[in-house]
Amino acid sequence: MADKKADQFYTRPPKLGKWEGFKQFLWNPETSQFLGRTGSSWGKILLFYLIFYAALVGFFAAMLAVFYQTLDDTKPKWQMDNSLIGSNPGLGFRPMPPDSNVESTLIWYDTREPKNRMTWTENLDEFLEPYTREPRPENAQNCDKTKPEENKFCDFKLTEEQFAPCTKQFGYGFGSTEGGGPCIFLKLNKIFGWVPDYYTNATIPEDMPKYLKKIIAEEEPKGTHRIVWVDCAGENPADVENIGPVNYHPYRGFKEKYFPFTNVKGYVSPLVAVHFEKPTRGVLINIECKAWARNIHHDRVDRRGSVHFELMID
To answer: Residue ranges of the alpha helices (H) in 203-276?
Structure first.
């Protein structure tokens, strides 16, 4: 009797072919197993992973909720020197060279080629659209002689009266065929909460251009010296000779009323349009523009407080 049971216990299962073995793996009618597991086994393992991933998702959701409680939608957590961008604004210029040559700072065009000029004017059309859009943003305030109210900003609008010939009507100067030059628009990079420390006659640095020193000395008694001044000049003696007269519209800098930047909805940065009246044709001119305030430091390598570009007109 014992020998009979032993023979039955050690009986090997019938040898199946590959197809039969695969079908039995998919579904075994003798044990009611699907893919090697019974229904209860599959239920337990699915329940385990359902609870596991639900707990994992819940944990990360809770961590994100805690993280977002530390953020403010209207202002950065880290500001000024504690932030990555620091407290020294840089200058930007428009129009920018095409995206195909993103590292270039050369503004070149041929006055005899309308399509060539159009590349630059269309770039400016797009950039300046917020400055000409009507109606103006609801948070914009006309504050020629006053500071903006809370949650509002001083509007900066591009008008023919203040910016001509640096307007679309005049092709931003790019269409001139009588020796005139283009208008390049400058803006200070936005830094939340940054307030300029304006120069006075007593704090003027030695390396400031003489004509700016004279302007500050004249404006201070009138109380109109509180401006972040802008100066554009040729970098080398040859560039100084070829750059020609330079005009600034609507002012020679950024007025006090536009600071500080507080991320008010609809805010547009103030601009200075630099009009190069009669640069020498057919010559590459290296130009550097600087912003002047006591808490703006100039560094060409890190591009702080200034901007460099080249201008060439054929």
So the answer is: 210-219, 237-243
CA-based Rg of the chain, rounded to a whole angstrom? 35
Say what the pLDDT of residue 9 is. Answer: 61
Per-residue model confidence (pLDDT) at position 39: 74
For residues 292 and 212, is the Cβ–Cβ distance under 8 A?
yes
Span 97-123, mean pLDDT? 86
Q: What is the per-residue burial (b if ≥16 Cβ within 10 Å, else e) of 57-95? A: eeeeeeeeeeeeeeeeeeebeeeeeeeebebbbbbebbb
Place of tokens 């070149």: 108
What average pLDDT does the structure give for the chain? 88
At 190-208, the pLDDT tens digits run 999 999 999 999 999 999 9
Asked if 131 and 172 count as a contact pair (C-beta separation under 8 A), the reply is no
Mean pLDDT, residues 36-61 taken together: 89
Strand order in the sheet with 27-28: 27-28, 33-34, 37-38
SS (H, E, C) 25-93: HHEECCCCEECCEEHHHHHHHHHHHHHHHHHHHHHHHHHHHHHHCCCCCCCCCCCHHHCCCCCCCCEEE
Nearest to 272 by CA among 288, 251, 256, 257: 251
Strand partners, 232: 289
